[in-house]
Amino acid sequence: MEFSVNHPILFIIVAAIIAVVLAQSIYFLVRAVRRAKEIGISRETLKKTAVASVLFTIAPAVAILIGVITLSKSLGIALPWLRLSVIGSLSYETVAAGTTLTELGKSMGEMITDASDYITVAWVMTVGIIIGLILTPLLTKKVQSGMLKIGSRDKKWGEIFNNALFLGMISAFLGYVFSDVLLVVKGDFSGLIPVCVMLTAAVVMLLCGLLNKITRWRWITDYAVPISLLCGMAMAIPYTAWLG
Amino acid sequence: MKQKKNMTYLESVHRDGRVWGLILFGLILSFPILLSLIFGELPEWGALARGAIAVLPMYWAVGIVEIFTYVPMLGAGGAYLSFVTGNIANLKLPCALDAMERAGVKANSEEGEIISTISIAVSSIATTIIIILGVILIVPLTPILNSPVLKPAFDQILPALFGGLAVVFVSKNPKLSIAPIILMLVLFIFVPFLNAGTVGIMVPVGVLFTLGVARILYKKGIL
User: Fold this and answer.
1) Complex ipTM, two decimals?
2) Chain A residue closest to B37 (CA)?
């Protein structure tokens, strides 16, 4: 069969794999909703969880789509569609594809025309991310059981332990926001853009809390994080024009 | 895969998660194998080996650490889904954290497990559908999504995401937040190696440090 990065057969295989991934999500969703009803979680809470999760997802999902478009210049659409729908992240996939293309004497942005090159890139991208799929079934139960033990031995410490996990992650990302601020010394103010965006999102979040207290509009707090995310992203446009 | 009478919900989640994980492992690995069979070509072994050696040590190390870092936060159902659909730190985990916070449930309770699973499943389905629509409409969408006007907004998703989340979690745990935030600010500002590409490595560092600080503060009765 003659090869092309956008050969219909590639789309058929990728669509079949993505259909199974979608089926897994639907299966777990149905199971969780059934169990939620059994233990008395209200319909209202479930509905709000679902709606807010969709709102929360739109902007990051569009960013992932931009990743598909970026990688499609070398790899066509099917492979980036698979890699970014299943496990992958743009930063990893770009490095994995770019490194392999360099080894093949090609560069990112140059369309692959040879089946062997394409298969080589697909292998490196696949083996790089496969570790999570091997280890999740093996280790999740053990790690989870450990967590539950901590919680059952000392309930208060169990809660603090959980909060510490979340704060540890959030603090790392807050640190990252400031990673380029020292560029200011060299007269480059672009490092302040993420800081301004983060502060904008934080202020919007605080305003949502305040508005909820004044107006008693519960929906504001329900959707406060997606609202602050979108406001932060929107303000990134003027901040970049100003500081970039 | 019905839930046996003597099996708890959590146990059945683990059993089903493992079965789905194995199926997907096989399917994902089958993609490059199928390509060889269909097009009658083998990979360039030399380039494959060199490419794998260049990316594997780093990504496998990060992958192993991610399991221990993210599984306790995601819950069982959330973990089985997230480690298949990816984009954990920039989408699935923040989405689940926000959902659990809004519903007022603890992450280590059954309610937390369920809300986290629902949130991550809905987010995964929404992401998949958005990407499918994007792939179908890729020709008209490309100039819009690649437009220089919108680019800064998508470049700044992480700061916008964590700005809002930080307010929620820092305001709930002010005493515990101070030390890790100061440490991370100092490290990211003064260590040139730390940037957008390496933030993933710093998450477990931040988590371990915060756990240590939490233990000390808890023992001293401050928390």
Assistant:
1) 0.89
2) A1
